[in-house]
Amino acid sequence: MNTSVTSIKLVLLGEAAVGKSSIVLRFVSNDFSENKEPTIGAAFLTQRVNMGDHTIKFEIWDTAGQERFASLAPMYYRNAQAALVVYDITKPQSFIKARHWVKELHEQASKGIVIALVGNKLDLIEGGAERKVAREEAEKLATEEGLLFFETSAKTGDNVNEVFLGIGQKIPLKKPDEQSQGSSGLRINDDNRVDLAAGGPGSSNAGACNC
Amino acid sequence: MMSSERRPSMAERRPSIMGPLSPHVEHRGSNLMVPHLAGLEDPLPDSTPGNVDVVIVGTGLVESILAAALSWQGSNVLHIDANTYYGDSSATLTIDQLKQWVQDVNSDKMKFYENAKLHVSGAIRNGKYSSRDFGIDLSPKILFAKSDLLSILVKSRVHQYLEFQSLSSFHTFENDSFEKLTNTKQEIFTDPSLPLMTKRNLMKFIKFVLDWESQTEIWASYAEAPIATFLVEKFKLDKAQVYELIFSIGLCYNIDVKTPEALQRIRRYLISFDVYGPFPVLYSKYGGPGELSQGFCRSAAVAGATYRLNLKFISYDPITKMALFSDGSKVSVTEKVVVAPTQSSDNSMNVPEQKYEVQRLTCVVEKPCTEWFAEGENASVVVFPPDSLKSGNKQAVQALVMGSGSDICPKGTSVWYLSTTQSGPRGELDLDAALEALEESIIRESSADLENDENILQVGSNGHFVLNSVKLGQSFKEYIPREKLQFLMKLYYKQFTSTPPFEVVDPSIFDLNSTDDDRLIPGASDNAVLYTSPPSAEISYDEAITAAKVLFQRIVGSDDDFFDIDFEDEDDTEKLNESAITDDENMNMTLDTGMSVEPVEFAGEMEI
Q1: Which end of chain A is more exposed for a tag (fewer CB within 10 A), N or C?
Q2: Could you tell me the domains of chain B?
Q3: Closest Cα of chain B to A8: distance in Å?
Q4: Total domain count for chain A?
Q5: B27 to A152, B17, B304, B448: CA distances (angstroms)
Q6: How do residues B328-350 score in pLDDT, each as one tens digit?
Q7: How many other C-beta atoms can be found within 10 angstroms of the C-beta atom of residue B270?
Q8: Does the CB of A6 have a partner CB in chain B at under 8 Å?
Q9: Which chain A residue lies closest to B567 (C-alpha atoms)?
Q10: What Gene Ontology molecular-function terms does this entry list (chain A) (predicted)?
Q11: Residue A98 belongs to a domain with what CATH number?
């Protein structure tokens, strides 16, 4: 039980320049988990978090800019178990956009998705800038929609890890017997899934040619 | 790697275009290139870029592969689509999107499609099922386990965005029933219906075909002869096996297919067997080419490409190098504008001829159809060889049946994709005949009524069940289904493509664009535009990579950098290295399908 790893697909949403990616970069480059450096590949960023007797592996999907012209593919939302909806606490427009993304997630994403509403750039307030989105207003939205809520600073790292820990705690962990449920409708059935990286060139029955 | 005079790649010509390298990525070998990771380092502007290297219009599979290949190569790509969804002619659509699509086809807004007829049952309209429970492919495809596209999916890491399932069940329709294909060594040996001689001949043929090219002495005199003649004369195979080999294993279109081409197609199936397990092909969950397109588009976006849906291409002027779009925006283009024929502009005069027809019939039925799937699987291929249908079909009809486990339809339903290369009104007749055969078969096979019918199964005086065989026989003969099969959706359409129903992929099939860039037709909105090839009738993905590479080469000057990328991966560094070695060695792969350069691996298991 102490080696169980749960993979979680987490998607990022929010207006441009609110710090979506900075939050993730801050999270994945911290010493916060015992794990080594994060991986930047073609697909997504990954980071492991140890939570007591199990490990959560976050597969973090950045929008890669595809949200700019409302051209996020359905694939982006599919099977996402968690989402960060990020806004900038000094930009009211970005909070309006956040509401839009929450609505979009309820429409497009799977039912059980854990959504965290994140007000970023807390450091600007501490630096004397004016807060434009009241904490209470965001909290109200979070309560209404059943979201986790955090205010963070990606710059100082303030509260960033808490976002991911909070999500990790809220994600229902897969129990061993759930995985073998088979093709029951909309759930992912791991048993019939073929991993393309696992087989393939050179790995099977090569070199056994006797004819 | 060989030509000394190759045009420098765009990345080489303009190294400054590269964004800052990510500090976390190590360089591995001199080929490694880490492009600017979009959105990670800098916030992106909210407007379309004013200057790009390449504009690609249409997000079909070939265009999407091209976009990803160019973006990772270092080109600055603007990729747009006139539709509000990804995929263009490879799209995976919901029922509502299909309705709109059919309207567009019939009002001539959707080019190179014709005669779309859609029937949607009240069960979907009234809410028993919702439109979004369905993901219907406009050109469904299956993926051979040993194929160029699969290698690129792995190499580009695009496979990580997708889920794949196996498909091992191939049926041939003959004498009004489905024969399950005996396609493995074990099945050939254990199939009680096969006489010993047949088994021996079949095994002999399978051993030969895996390495057919080098054994010229066996087939040379049949190079121009139909494959059936060769199989009967050289390997003494019966009609049943010949038809299975040509139409189910080879997935050929008609009986005239020549020996070498058919051998190559039969080999394609056999070398794919046992690469990932005891099945030759895979498909992606949630939809086929539409999903793959989205995956490659995302990959392109990660490498810096800009995406805009719902934007039409209006014109391109090769002298000012400006491309114009429907929202009035303009972009200056350094290299090329690439356009899918389906999204060509008004007043376009350079679109290659789209003369080949593919006729399709796609149905959603309220039956799970698990009878046709292998255990634990959710899909099967059913082939109706020429002259096997009531309509007296001259071309094969191919059907891909997918169950709810593939997540393209809700529980209790399945999707039947039928297609044929038969042109004209005959095509629809053939599709209807095949549909009828499928319908009769599934009602017969799935009928639980038979076993539970009180008249057939009676309780004897000792309390045991007794089977009334007279009534059983009668019942089989006179069996009339109590319930007709419920069709939730039925869609007919005709698609046109520039790609002929090919047997073996060849780059020349896709090299349709004029090489004379100075040829300007006055008044044309598409001078110097490169056109892509729409999906063909081919049920596999065989054409996609070759078609994308032909365009890549035209734009970049060489295909050396076609997905010449290497990624670091956390968990599977070892796995990655394994496959990277294979890939690296095959780097100088020809523009061939890749089939002929692969070592024969299946042969290792063969013993007679």
Answers
A1: N
A2: 10-138+284-355+492-581 (3.50.50.60)
A3: 13
A4: 1
A5: 33, 18, 19, 62
A6: 999 999 999 999 999 999 999 99
A7: 21
A8: no
A9: A41
A10: GTP binding; GTPase activity
A11: 3.40.50.300
